[in-house]
Each structure stands twice: as structure tokens, then as C-alpha cells.
Design a protein that fits this description.
Layout (H helix, E strand, L loop, with lengths): L19 E6 L3 E9 L2 E10 L2 H18 L4 E5 L6 H9 L4 E4 L1 H9 L8 H14 L10 H31 L16 H9 L3 H5 L3 H11 L5 H17 L8 H32 L3 H7 L6 H11 L8 H7 L8 E2 L2 E2 L11 H15 L5 H12 L4 H22 L8
Parallel strand pairs: 1-4, 4-5
Antiparallel strand pairs: 1-2, 2-3, 6-7
Helix pairs in contact: 5-10, 5-12, 6-10, 8-9, 11-12, 12-14, 13-16, 14-16, 15-16
């Protein structure tokens, strides 16, 4: 890292200033620009690598700025996936205030400039300029338990998407080997179904096996079920094999792929089961988890996702801020005498939180599990609101309830 000389050029006889350091974050390296006060950049920008030695030099640089201005500078940077985490951890370890900015905000600020410039140094400079134009609240440090829960919840979502993709590829292969097999078991992806398919993957193998032997194999993979159930499945399997359009498999590669995807599906099922149990175990240590679960329609997984995405409720001083964080707030479009009457939600917040709330509302109004929510939904429908609009209104209402319950540390009372 380039050493920055310290001079008293901008010192004002002991007067306290308002310093800030802007960081344009990238993978493994970031660009740094410092301002001693509004309109007073300090030296040229420089880059730092995301390793311990250079991060320690960066902290020393902040101490130098403190000696010049009378206070430790605030650090402003964009939220960039996971690339900013080494810097954030370093700042938190040294108890330095920082502002983690939504990239949408900084992007809009850059567009306001007439000059079309895109460099890391310019972006770091613009972050400092933006700091003096707007009032931002410093990032509040989140609890380790909640961050661990959020990481597990997001990893589960990633694995679930990969599992769904593997199931689709599995269907493609099965269509070319044994499409009639889908009619044998109620759950195609159950343990017994996949194990039997791996052992009897073609019509030939099924038809050359005795019904009683098939029933014993099925019962062996699912000992909790009766022998009558196993015999019924064996008969279905034989009938499906006789109706299968592919009585002989032409391509051995299909069988290789089928067995490979069965192994992959078992791996994903095991990992997802482990993640879920770890999530529930971790969530049970958090007081707010039980509060969220007291709302009818919100089960274990949805409650864990909601509380992990919201984090500490003290981060929000008004329910509308929580609504905006979830991206449920309506967009506004007005120009001159025109004011739009149909406004979509912004969808600029946490998509995971928004999706979990949507599922919670669907579960709540289905079969009137949540009487208060169902009554509110019916009211909106009577007013002539379309179903989707009524559901969004319910999500908004649910978020207000969650905010109030978490602030008061009270359980939900469903009295319609």
C-alpha cells in the first residue's frame, strides 16, 4: 500500500472537522479516498489489498486522519455481496463507525454527474461527496447468532435451487428410460422410490423379477410400512414396467446418468436436512424466534428466515422503514398535474424476506389459520381489490404486527 504523508495543511487551529473515508470495494482489493471535511479531499486515492498487513496499515491511516481532524473518520462503502466482509470485520474489530450503502443509492448519485467517468478512484471520491450531501445512519453491528442464522438460511436457499435443478435433470433422464415409474410411488423422490429405481432402473429388470421378491425389496427399504402396502407397490411397479414405452434401453449412458442423479439427489437431501436441523437449533436460542412463531401461519423455517433477514429490530425506528427494507413500499410516480393511480411495490429490499412473508400470508389466510389476517384479506377483496393487491396489503399488515411484537417482546394474540 502506498504510504500517505501526514501534514497539517488542512488543520484549523484545533477546530474539529468532519472527516470521511470512501472505499470502492472490489474483489481482493479496494480503492480508498479520504476527505478531511466537505470539499476538502486529502491527497490522492490509493488501493489496499484485503489482507491483514494492508488492513492494519489502513487502520493506521485512519488514526493519522484523527490526529489531523480531531476525530476518527467515518468510513463509507457499498454493500457488494461478500467482497466487503474483510473490510467490515476489520472496522468492527477496531470499533470504527461505517456506513454500508445500498448500491442503488450510490449509482443514482453517480448518474447525477454530467461527466461520464467510471474508475475505482472516481467511485471512492463520489462516495465521500455523497456522504456530505445526505444524512446516513452508521451501520449497527449485528449479533453473531443472527448472522449465523442468516448465512445458514441463505445457504439453504442456494442448495434448494440446486436441488430443484437436479430434480429437473433427473426428470429428463427418467423420461428416456422409465417414464411410467412416476405412477408407482406417491413421492417420486422419497428414499424408497429412489433406491428401488436405482436397483430396478429398466422394464427388463422389473419384469424378470418375481412380485413377492419385489415386495420384499420394497419392504426392506421401508420397514415401517406393512407387507400389504409393499405388495401393492410391487404390483404397480410390474404394471408400469409392462406399460413402459422403452422396454429395452438403447443408450447405456442414460442409465449411468440416472444413477448419477439419484446419488446427487440423496446428497442434496442429506445436506438440506442437516441445514434445516442446524437452523432450527440455532433459531431456538434467539428470543425473537418464538415471538415470530406465535403468529398463525408462520412455521419453523419461515420464522427462521424472517428473523434472520430482519436482524435486530432496533435497526428500524419506524415500521415503515421495515416495510421499505422488505421492498413492500409502493413506488411513487408524479409529474406536473399527473399522479399515477396504479403504483407497484418497489421490490428494492430483501427478496428473501419478501418471499418468506408472502408464504406466511398464504399459509395464514388458507383455511383461516390466522383469523385477523383472513378478516383483513376478505375486507380488501370486498373493497374490490384484486387478489395480489390484497395479499400485498396483508404482507404490509403482517410486517407492522411483527415490528410491534418484536419491539414489545410480546406474543401474537389471534382474536378476530
Amino acid at each position: 500500500m502506498e504510504e500517505i504523508g501526514v501534514t497539517g495543511e488542512y488543520a484549523k487551529g484545533g477546530e474539529r472537522m468532519n472527516p470521511v473515508v470512501g472505499i470502492d470495494v472490489a474483489k481482493e482489493v479496494s480503492e480508498v479516498q479520504a476527505f478531511l471535511d466537505k470539499g476538502k479531499p486529502y491527497g490522492k486515492s490509493f488501493s489496499i489489498k484485503h489482507n491483514r498487513e494492508e488492513l492494519d496499515h489502513f487502520i493506521h491511516f485512519l488514526e493519522e486522519l484523527k490526529s489531523l481532524t480531531g476525530q476518527i473518520p467515518v468510513v463509507i462503502l457499498e454493500s457488494t455481496g461478500h467482497y466487503h466482509t474483510p473490510i467490515v470485520q476489520c472496522l468492527e474489530e477496531n470499533e470504527i463507525l461505517y456506513i454500508l450503502l445500498n448500491p442503488i443509492i450510490s449509482h443514482q448519485a453517480k448518474k447525477s454527474s454530467l461527466r461520464k467517468v467510471k474508475t475505482d478512484a472516481f467511485d471512492a471520491y463520489q462516495l465521500c461527496v455523497l456522504y456530505y450531501k445526505e444524512e446516513f445512519e452508521p451501520q449497527k453491528r449485528r449479533g453473531i447468532h443472527l448472522l449465523n442464522l442468516r448465512n445458514l438460511s441463505r445457504q439453504q436457499e442456494i442448495l434448494t435451487n440446486m436441488y430443484v435443478e437436479a430434480k429437473m435433470q433427473f426428470h429428463t433422464i427418467l423420461d428416456q428410460i422409465f417414464p411410467e415409474y412416476r405412477k408407482v410411488f406417491g413421492d417420486l423422490f422419497s428414499k424408497v422410490s429412489l433406491l428401488i429405481l436405482r436397483e430396478y432402473s429398466t422394464s427388463e429388470k422389473v419384469l424378470e423379477t418375481d412380485e413377492e421378491e419385489l415386495a420384499e425389496r420394497i419392504r426392506g427399504y421401508c420397514p415401517t410400512r406393512s407387507i400389504q402396502w409393499a405388495r401393492e407397490k410391487a404390483r404397480k411397479l410390474i404394471y408400469s414396467a409392462s406399460q413402459n414405452p422403452f422396454q429395452k434401453v438403447t443408450y447405456q449412458s442414460h442409465l449411468i446418468n440416472l444413477n448419477m442423479y439419484i446419488d446427487i439427489l440423496f446428497h442434496y437431501q442429506g445436506h438440506l436436512s442437516d441445514l434445516e436441523s442446524q437452523m432450527i437449533s440455532l433459531a431456538n436460542e434467539i428470543e425473537e424466534y418464538k415471538i415470530i412463531q406465535s403468529i398463525p401461519g408462520i412455521g419453523e423455517k419461515i420464522a427462521a428466515t424472517i428473523i434472520s433477514e430482519i436482524g435486530e429490530i432496533d435497526r428500524f425506528n419506524h415500521p415503515k422503514k421495515l416495510v421499505a427494507y422488505a421492498g413492500i413500499d409502493p413506488s411513487v410516480h408524479s409529474s406536473g398535474k399527473f399522479t399515477a393511480t396504479t403504483n407497484r411495490i418497489t421490490k428494492r429490499g430483501s427478496s428473501r424476506l419478501r418471499h418468506s412473508l408472502y408464504l406466511a400470508v398464504l399459509c395464514g389466510i388458507r383455511s383461516s389459520r390466522n383469523k385477523k389476517l383472513k378478516e383483513f384479506y376478505d375486507k380488501k377483496r370486498v373493497e374490490g381489490k384484486p387478489s395480489k393487491v390484497a395479499i400485498v396489503a396483508c404482507i404490509n399488515k403482517l410486517l407492522h404486527w411483527i415490528y410491534a411484537l418484536l419491539k414489545r417482546k410480546e406474543n401474537f394474540l389471534d382474536v378476530a
